[in-house]
């Protein structure tokens, strides 16, 4: 396949390069971590055993991250952090890799649900 560079194509890529999406955050090219307070601590401590991708693809509450850190400390040989360091790491992770908004929707109100076909009688689906 050969390429057919066109003026339009060149213009488009120039435009894309010059106008990154408004929501883009600065990320470290080497790790992909969002560059913000504490990122170097995370980069230094959380990319030693596995790719930073494991970190950046994960997300969750402070509790979730703390639980993961405890699990890695208990079972995977992750070293202990000083409380200050752990706070820095958890602050960073919770702020930039927190629970995904919009990933789950709140449950529908019962009045918005269709009638439950199994409500009447004792017939269980699959039971025979
Ligand atoms: C001493 C080694 C080590 C260090 C350092 C380490 N981890 Fe891990 N981590 C592991 C191992 C081993 C796994 C499991 C790897 C796998 O599933 O492939 C893991 C898995 C993970 C996962 C994936 C968990 C899942 O549910 O799939 C995340 C997220 C993670 N680590 C985050 C971190 C963060 C954040 C730090 C820094 C605070 C960190 N890791 C530092 C060893 C380490």
TrEMBL record:
Keyword Signal: yes
Region described as Disordered: spans on this chain: 101-128
GO-annotated molecular function: electron transfer activity; heme binding
UniProt KW keywords: Signal
This protein's record includes keyword Signal: yes
Compositional bias (Pro residues): 107-117
UniProt-listed InterPro entries: Cyt_c-like_dom_sf
Signal peptide: 1-24
The name this protein goes by in its record: Sulfite dehydrogenase (Cytochrome) subunit SorB
């Amino acid at each position: 396949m050969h390429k057919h560079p066109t003026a339009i194509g060149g213009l488009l890529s120039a435009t894309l390069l010059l106008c990154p999406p408004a929501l883009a955050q600065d990320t470290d090219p080497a790790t992909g971590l969002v560059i913000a307070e504490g990122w170097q601590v995370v980069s230094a401590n959380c990319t030693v055993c596995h790719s930073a991708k494991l970190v950046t693809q994960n997300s969750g509450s402070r509790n979730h991250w703390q639980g993961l850190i405890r699990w890695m400390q208990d079972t995977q040989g992750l070293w202990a952090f000083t409380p200050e360091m752990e706070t820095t790491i958890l602050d960073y992770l919770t702020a930039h890799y927190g629970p995904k908004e919009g990933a789950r929707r709140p449950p529908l109100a019962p009045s918005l649900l269709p009638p439950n076909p199994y409500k009447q009688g004792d017939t269980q689906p699959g039971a025979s």
